[in-house]
Amino acid sequence: MSDQWEENYQFFIRCLPDILESHRGAHVLLHDRSIDGYFATSLDAIKAGLTKHGENNFSVELVDDAVEDLGFFSHVSSTLRA
Amino acid sequence: MLVQRCALDQHRLILPVSVSKPALQAGQFHGSFSGKHYRALVDTGAQRTVLSERVIAELNLLRTGHMQFSGLHGPRTHTRYLASLGIWAHRVDRGGSGSRLDQNELSLFSLDEPIEIVNMDDNVNFDLILGFDVLKNFSFSFDSQSREFEITLSP
Question: Is the pTM of this model over 0.80?
Answer without folding.
Answer: yes
